[in-house]
Each structure stands twice: as structure tokens, then as C-alpha cells.
What does this fold into?
Amino acid sequence: NGKPCWSSNCWEGKVTIEISNTTPLPVKVYANEGIAQILFLESDEECEVSYKDKKGKYDKQDGIVLPLIDK
It folds into this structure.
């Protein structure tokens, strides 16, 4: 939850991750076990075009959001 950048033109909301088992075999996912890693990088430069500039469709999400597909 928060803004993963330092300027005011950032994405903000709650990060969610979607996982899928695309094999025919069952997979067990245990509570409190890691399944992913997120790495945030800091830059000395402002981005040329921010997520807000692009009018990102997932900005300010407040929980799980189903995929928003443009048609």
C-alpha cells in the first residue's frame, strides 16, 4: 500500500499478485511461505512518462481488481 516512487505523478494503491497453475498437476501453496519477490529501484532521474501520465487503469486500486482489458 503506498506510492512506489518519489514524485507526485506515481502509481498508488495496493499491490496484488495473481498466480495460476497452468499444469495438470496440483500445487500446494502454504500460508506464510514466500511465492514472489518484488524489487523497487531508486533512480536519480525523474521518469519521462509516469503511470499517471499514461492514465494507468490500475491506479488507486483498493484491493483485488479483475483484469481490465481494452476492447
Residues 28 and 39 are 25 Å apart (CA to CA). Residues 1-71 form one domain. The chain has one domain: 1-71. The chain has no helices and no strands.
